[in-house]
Fold:
Amino acid sequence: MSETIKWSFSTDRCVRRCQRQYFLQHVAAWHNARDPVRREAFLLKQVKTLDLWQGSLVHRGIERFVVPALQQNRRIDLDATIAGTQAMAERQFAFSKARRYREEGMSKAKAEDDYCALDGHEKDAGVSPEEFRGVLHTIEQSLRNLASMTELLEEIQRAKQYWPELPLYVEYDIARIEVHIDLLYFRAFGQPTIIDWKVSRSMGGSETDLQTALYAWAMCRHPKWRVERPEDCELIEVQLLTQNVIRHQVTQDIFDRLENRIYRSVNMIQSVRLGRSYSLADLDDYDFAKNPNSCSYCPQGALCRSLADSNGVEMPQAKAETPHRARKDQTYVNAYPQLF
Ligand code: SF4
Structure:
């Protein structure tokens, strides 16, 4: 029987960048596996860059301090929101700096909001005091900007109920599509508004319309929400550092293009996985990164190199060349624990 393929735009980008990264990140990674490779792949999957971290802190700050105020129809206490979010950043930073994410028995569930694993701490490069101050500044600027977007906040405050950081799972063909909505509320029955908080100055890529339409598409397909027409979905992208508010149109035509895109991507992933569940012996069937420069930013890099070294497989070099692949019948030695 074929494995269900978990799909998101980020999974699609990962497998296009590097099949081995996809294998480690999306096939091998498992939080409570006995297999040390699977546990290590899961741990490395949690490691964040500073950009991702500051975005997740602002999202969590809005969820913890802004949304409850909206829900209870009371004033948003900006100073308390900033202080609470920055205090969370301090605790997470200390947790990561002490590499507590590597403690025996530690888990995200156990550490709750203190859990954090930063790329700089994992790779020993560290995170400088200036970089950390930059994160605190981004938190404050994002939340102050949000507080001064009075027109948008008035619009949001008209709703009666809110769903922050809502995960949605939708079955589509052999895929399970994963969507994460930053904030959801309804203007009327069957008419959702979906807010997408952005904490980055970089503009979206060429598929921004499809990526944002995915939220609306998932709402329309999910039986719980009873949304029937794409046009009934309102999609608002809020760029918190620049105070830009972009309202995306959703139409059936975009849904058709999106489904076509998902279908092709899932087929491509299926051709890589061949319906197999996890086995380390399959690793050699997954190609190295097409562009070896991807290895410099790869969250699974240490594990990938360790597995390659321990089995005598040559990693791709920074200059483009045909990746060296080990014989298909080579058995991978599960040698990663020696690194600890
Ligand atoms: S280190 Fe390079 S080859 Fe290995 S998984 Fe990462 S991107 Fe792929």
Remarks:
- The pocket of iron/sulfur cluster is lined by residues 18, 20-21, 24, 288-289, 294-295, 298, 300-301, 304 (CB under 6 Å).
- The first strand starts at residue 5 and ends at 7.
- The radius of gyration is 22 Å.
